[in-house]
Write a structure and sequence with these properties.
The protein is mostly beta strands and 83 residues long. It has 1 helix and 7 strands; from the N terminus they run βββββββα.
């Protein structure tokens, strides 16, 4: 399955293929055994198993405040500023 990123510029929609690791939102699958809840930015987070848009199972990050899972790369880059 291909993953596309859509953008709007000058009234035209452009699509580009992106790597599955770049997914922003992913589907929660199950808890990561023994993984503790941690705090970042005054919120509770936890690493977990997720299903990415291409069907692959990999590590993601659950955000308790919004009840949503983020892709690991997105979290590392956009929330922690590490990538």
């Amino acid at each position: 399955m291909r993953m596309l990123s859509l953008s709007l510029s000058a009234g035209k929609v452009a699509a580009k293929e992106v790597d599955w690791k770049e997914a922003r939102l992913v589907e929660f699958l199950k808890d990561y055994p023994g993984e503790p809840v941690f705090q970042h930015g005054g919120e509770n987070w936890q690493y977990c198993w997720c299903t990415y848009p291409n069907g692959r199972t990999d590590v993601g990050v659950y955000r308790f405040y919004e009840d949503v899972c983020y892709g690991y790369t997105h979290f590392q880059r956009d929330w922690l500023g590490l990538i």
